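2024-03-11 09:14:02 INFO worker-7 job=invfold-0412 stage=load source=structure_tokens
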């Protein structure tokens, strides 16, 4: 697995458009099996509306060839789920950190969104509990 991680890092370093990247999921948490894919989250330096989705598809193919297995690339620029972002930041392993300030801003924003979302979710659950017939 160490050899595969080194291969992933090498490929990511070749991609000048990637500001930072994480390994997350079962491989990062240490409970992967032989059928597990590689979950890689990347943040592109340029906005997605400028570069489109093609760079992510190309990167996914390059990474898959490097490790000889399935790779799923998640683009952090377009991430909508506060929970998913939180899981990546909480358990992810940083593979590339070209712009530490940008990564720290992303992590800070992600944690804020998650905690805001969690607060409103708890309020909604309490309201539903209060309104449900007993």
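2024-03-11 09:14:09 INFO worker-7 stage=emit residues=134
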């Amino acid at each position: 697995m160490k050899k595969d991680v080194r291969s992933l890092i090498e490929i990511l370093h070749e991609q000048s458009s990637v500001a930072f990247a994480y390994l997350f999921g079962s491989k990062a948490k240490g409970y992967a099996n032989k059928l597990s894919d590689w979950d890689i989250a990347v943040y592109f330096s340029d906005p997605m509306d400028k570069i489109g989705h093609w760079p992510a598809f190309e990167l996914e193919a390059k990474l898959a060839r490097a490790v000889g297995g399935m790779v799923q690339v998640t683009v952090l620029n377009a991430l909508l789920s506060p929970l998913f972002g939180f899981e990546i930041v909480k358990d992810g392993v940083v593979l590339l950190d070209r712009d530490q300030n940008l990564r720290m801003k992303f992590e800070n924003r992600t944690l804020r969104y998650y905690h805001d979302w969690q607060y409103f979710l708890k309020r909604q659950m309490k309201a539903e509990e209060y309104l449900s017939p007993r």
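2024-03-11 09:14:09 INFO worker-7 stage=report msg="Strands lie at 18-24, 38-44, 71-75, 93-97."
2024-03-11 09:14:10 INFO worker-7 job finished
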